Amino acid sequence: MGDKALVMLSGGLDSATCLYWAKSRFSEVSAITFNYFGRFQREKRAAAKLAKRASVSRLIKIDMPFVKEASDFYNSSRFRSDPDALWPSYVPARNMMFYSIAAHYAEYLGVKWIIGGHNLHDITFFKDTSKGYIDKMNSLFREGCLLCDGQAYRIVLPLAEMSRKEIIKLAIRLKTPMELTWSCHREGRAHCGQCYACKQRLDAFTSLGLKDPVFKS
Q1: Which secondary structure element, helix H or strand E, spans residue 156, and what is its range?
Q2: Is the dihedral of CA 38, 40, 43, 48 positive or negative?
Q3: Residue 133's pLDDT is what?
Q4: Which H or E run includes 5?
Q5: With a cut of 70, which residues of the chain have pLDDT below it?
């Protein structure tokens, strides 16, 4: 089994947990992060801080200014004004693009495991996070990889069957620096506490009797 992993690192809680999950299992861990159109500076900084704290072998930064979330593509104020909506952050073929780019680097770097942070909640809306979708991508990788010596890289989803509460418990066990993460879907100096991502975090921490470290007050 290959001992190199490449983590898809957004800067959020899920990807941070995956980063530390990978560090606990593989001898060499790199990370890749995607700077699509309008990506929040706070999210970029979170990814960089997490990578530095984890002492990853390399942090690959991919600039993709042509990739837009639905709210930016349609310039829709309706999308932005609804803190509970998932449509604003939807990107057609997002995971097909991102994982394909990760595979490009994985093949050259000799990486066997591409670690994604999709969880149990994601599949209810984002259909390209399902097991079937990821299995098909892995099948295509096996068919197309020429430098893999018969063992193609593959996507692994350690959080796929975990709820938000279970992910937090795992993050605690792995000593993930959750205070460095950024999950909010609004730009600002601090998490807004109102968007669906913030509410999901707060609800999960509260149900566990814990305080979310990103909320100072």
Answers
A1: strand 154-156
A2: positive
A3: 95
A4: strand 4-8
A5: 1-2, 76-85, 217
Q: Are 117 and 17 in contact (CB under 8 A)?
A: yes
Task: Find residue 115's DSSP bridge partners.
Answer: 7, 156
Domain 4-183 top-level CATH class: alpha beta
Inter-helix orientation angle 164-173/196-207, to 10°:
70
User: Which two structure tokens, joined as six digits, stand for 75?
Assistant: 């310039």
Q: pLDDT at position 1, please?
A: 44
Helix (H, G, I), strand (E, B) or coil at 38: coil
pTM above 0.70, yes or no: yes
**Please, what is the Cα angle at 164 between 80 and 28, to 5 degrees?**
100
Q: Which two tokens stand for residue 103?
A: 């595979």
Round to whole Å and give the CA distance between 212 and 46.
Answer: 16
Return the structure tokens found at 2: 């290959």
Where in the chain are the domains?
4-183
Q: How far apart are CA 25 and CA 40, in angstroms?
A: 30
Q: Are 57 and 22 in contact (CB under 8 A)?
A: no
How do residues 185-211 score in pLDDT, each as one tens digit? Answer: 888 889 999 888 899 999 999 999 999
Residue 96, SS3 per DSSP:
helix
Question: Which pair of structure tokens corresponds to residue 202?
Answer: 């707060």
Angle at 186 between CA 183 and CA 187, to 5 degrees: 100
